[in-house]
Specification:
The protein contains 14 helices and 15 strands. α7 crosses α10 and α8 crosses α9. The protein has two domains: 183 residues, Gcn5-related N-acetyltransferase (GNAT) (Aminopeptidase, 3-Layer(aba) Sandwich), CATH 3.40.630; 183 residues, Gcn5-related N-acetyltransferase (GNAT) (Aminopeptidase, 3-Layer(aba) Sandwich), CATH 3.40.630.30. The radius of gyration is 22 Å and the shape is globular. The chain is of the alpha+beta class. It starts with a helix and ends with a helix. Strands 1, 2, 3, 4, 5, 6, 7 and 15 form an eight-stranded mixed β-sheet that branches. Strands 9-10-11-12-13-8-14 form a seven-stranded mixed β-sheet.
Amino acid sequence: MTNRSTQTEKRDEECSIHVRGVQDAEWDSFLQDDPLGQFPQSSTWAQFKETGGWNCLRHVIRREGRIRGGFQLLWKPTRFGRIGYVSKGPVAQDEDPRLVDELVSELTNSGRRLRLLAIVVQPPDRGWLTAGRLRAPLFLPNRVLEIITATLMIDVTGGAPAIEARMRKTTRKYLRRAVRGKVCVREGGEKDLELFFALMLETCKRQGVAPNPADPAALKALWKTEGKGVRCRLTFAEHGGKAIAGLFCIGFGETLELWKKGSLPENLPKRPVELLYHESFVWAHSSGYRFCNLGSMSRHIAERLLAGKELTGKEQRSLDWFNLGFGGAPILMPQASLHFPIQALSLGYRLLTSNPFTRRRFSRWVSRLEAG
């Protein structure tokens, strides 16, 4: 009887499941200390996503009383069924293959228990071994969802001199223009979130996309759920006492992510966005961060640059070209995979994405599914 009790306690210590979106300091500390840990796996992000109707299941593996790996699965009901999303996970210490396999197995089990229609899994940015474990027949390559798989990283460890030395000559010229034009940067707070959203909305209109988050209330929710190791920072570029551009950053681990931005189109020639970026790089260095993540980049452009190829004229007129002016390094990330707990759905996905025509139609259907 004693041995059975001891064995049960050991199993409970090694593998435990939490279904909650509240702050989880132990899990967040594990992510902070692990090179693969990223903000979308944090309990703060789960709390923020609750405002959009997402639920949270967090699974952790313990060894000798400490977390050694886990994943945070967010899921929500839609009119078609429940869908799940693991962003930047699973995370296994040292990317131990046995831990990864155990987490992947538990992930598929969780899908069945929650009666999910599908799970989208995007491994950590440097989780190449993990990505290799997400393979057929249980996991299929993403062919329908628009998920970021490349980004641009700015190394800020050398401080302002090193940062500026890597910038394009024209970018440095634009920074000087902003300073000469008396554009200045001020730090904002919670009371300024509606002002920032209005600026972000202007940028979304120019780009022809819907704002995400969809309203200022969501930004306020994120600001209020700031937790262990997570820092939200809001800055504005002002001219003549008026905010003409804004930048919302999220710091986690060794990286400050330049998450969302917005600006008034008529003031872009004053170069407020360049000034906001530069100020954020310098602030990140002084605050102990190693990198600034500019958020997204065309995978095609990233691959061309990493292969040493010149960009085309069209590519040099893109947003990526603007960001490249700050001297960052393109980073390729693992592609996302899809898991369908019901085998018939897996077969249907294979068939519907097997040719361009049915894949386009299926992509439009998935867009409606994502909207709930």
